[in-house]
Amino acid sequence: MSERDAYPPVSAAWYTVAVLFLAYTFSAIDRQILTLLVGPVRADLGLTDFEVSLLQGFAFSLLFVVVGIPLARVADRRSRRGIIAVGIVFWCLMTALCGMAKTFGQLFVARMGVGVGEAALSPAAASLISDSFKPERRAMAFSVYHLGYPVGGGLALIIGGLVLELLAGVDEVQLGWLGTFRTWQLAFIIVGLPGLLIAALMFSFREPVRQERMYDTEGERIPLAVIGGYMRERWQAYGAHLSAVAFLGMLAVGTAIWYPTFLMRTYGMSASGAGYSYGLVMGLCGAAGILSGGWLSGHLMRRGHADANMRVMLIAAVCKTLPLVVGPLMPSAELALLCMAVATYLGQVSVGVTTAALMEITPNEMRAQMLAVMLFLVNILGIGFGASLIAALTDFVFADDAALRYSIALASAVIAPTIVVILWLGLPHYRRCVEQVHAMQRTRDLQALSHSNTTPSGDKGVDYVQAT
């Protein structure tokens, strides 16, 4: 029996995705809640836009990128459910701890802790999903998982707006022996603690059998030199994919973080109004875009396009450039939100297929680690620099808070075309890499059927590594 026949039942596979979706939703809520609280946090702690951007981006990504790859190496060999469960508990507690912060330094450290916890999720989740679905179905499965980001991000804005609206006019709330809290502090606590329940759900499903392995021994450690050699031989495909994803992260994170503040500064919207409006755009249009991307990738793959996943990324990048650039320049909030709705839909089309594209060219024992590398780049360039780039343009180039709209437009006008060029140049290299990996896997399946009783498992792994 080939590895393709060892996937779990469809119902079990989709249940796994459902639980991981919930985990990702809560991670997005805890990550994005600060977006709507910029005003009160900035006022209470006496911060600049640039300092707030450090809390939104750099603080979160600083330890995320440090612990991400070590955690991923463990996930490629050990219990992926356990790693995710521990991560959920940690980031939820650290989000609640953000609500205890009284200074910039305390809030910075707590946000670093949120990043540490969330670093455990996506690499292990990608490995679980890849082992639950055949290649032609993975894009849709990853798309459903990635729905957690727009849904969670939208809920963060909506919940935050609701808290601010309910406590409008209230400066502080006394919570008995816990002490006195500002309204923005309560928002962190309210969104942080409920996520602890999701950790228990991680043990409600079985881990699937690991598929498409280089080695036949479960839990065998792959030397870093082997991983590096595998990537070097395919550097054009990996380079195009990873660099494009990094710039996609920079563009998406930067605009998402600053758009609610832009709506408030430019059009005079209230914090709750901006939260509701942008939250609905992110939730509805983002969800529709992600599902569309998964469907389109599967459709193209069934029509024989080996490069379906990266092809979808290119199509989405081309189409979203214009609405991203012109949206902040619109004369009304309604038109700005309409442009962002289009851009959000098109941008999220590539989200699920981005992970599927990476998994398509990566053997099982490397998958969590390769996704950790991708997230490393997304966090360094995306979360780390994306938020701060727009803030730096506002503070140091335009030197005017009201010029935030021009900062968003300028950043989009430079980054979006760069992504298109990278994907266009990388597409043929990625296509060849996918075809090569598929051919090697078919050969390995045939060898497994012919020699399962005579060939030592270690020899199969060595042959596969040498063949790559």
TrEMBL record:
The chain crosses the membrane at residues 12-34, 54-75, 82-102, 108-130, 142-164, 184-205, 238-258, 278-296, 308-329, 335-359, 371-394, 406-427. It comes from Parahaliea mediterranea. Pfam families: MFS_1. SUPFAM superfamilies: MFS general substrate transporter. One of its GO terms (molecular function) is transmembrane transporter activity. This is MFS transporter. The keyword Membrane applies. Residues 448-468 are annotated as: Disordered. The keyword Transmembrane applies. It is found in: Membrane. It is a multi-pass membrane protein. Keywords: Membrane, Transmembrane, Transmembrane helix, Transport. Residues 16-431 form the Major facilitator superfamily (MFS) profile domain. It comes from the Bacteria. GO terms for cellular component: membrane.
